[in-house]
Design brief:
Layout lengths: L2 H11 L5 H20 L2 H17 L10 H32 L6 H15 L3 H12 L4 H8 L3 H23 L1
Length: 174
């Protein structure tokens, strides 16, 4: 029996046993196509099953002579959908991991406390520049306009303040 006759028999006479002929005939082709796309034998096996279920559900839309190209097109879509879903899941996991706060060890926490202490000991003007640049994320040109200093002066001050903070943190550590 050719594919068109099998499909006609399934649709007109509800002879679902004929569908096993289609599954037997096209499983190797569908498996090969799915495996070429997903590169995972177990997943390719799942895609084969999903492909034949979807093909059966849509058998009434088949208009060709042979089922091979039609079923492999379904398998390709199924495999690509699996890859897309895996990428979306991976992206969501990465985004979720980025949104979760990092765990700090005790040493890191002590370093942060020393930094805060060193910043508190800075002169008011320097503390303000640090606050605007690092905590409020202002650009140097905005800080310059706000403080009345030149942008170059702000850059130099930031550099010098950072050096002083590094030295203070080292002395606190000893």
């Amino acid at each position: 029996m050719n594919d068109k006759e099998i499909v006609d028999r399934i649709l007109r006479h509800h002879d679902v046993n004929c569908y096993s002929l289609i599954v037997g005939r096209y499983t190797p082709m569908v498996l090969s196509k799915a495996l070429a796309i997903v590169k995972d034998r177990e997943l390719a096996g799942e895609i084969v099953q999903q492909t034949f279920v979807r093909a059966y559900d849509r058998l009434d839309t088949f208009r060709g002579e042979t089922l091979g190209p039609w079923i492999t097109a379904i398998a390709c879509r199924q495999a690509i959908n699996h890859l897309d879903e895996a990428r979306r899941r991976q992206t969501r996991q990465k985004e979720s991991a980025r949104q979760q706060p990092e765990e700090y060890d005790e040493e890191h926490e002590q370093l942060l406390q020393r930094l805060e202490h060193a910043i508190d000991e800075l002169p008011e003007k320097d503390r303000q520049i640090i606050q605007l640049h690092y905590y409020e994320k202002m650009k140097t040109e905005t800080i310059a306009a706000k403080t009345g200093l030149s942008q170059q002066n702000i850059l130099v001050k930031l550099h010098r303040i950072r050096l002083r903070l590094k030295e203070k943190i080292k002395t606190y550590g000893n």
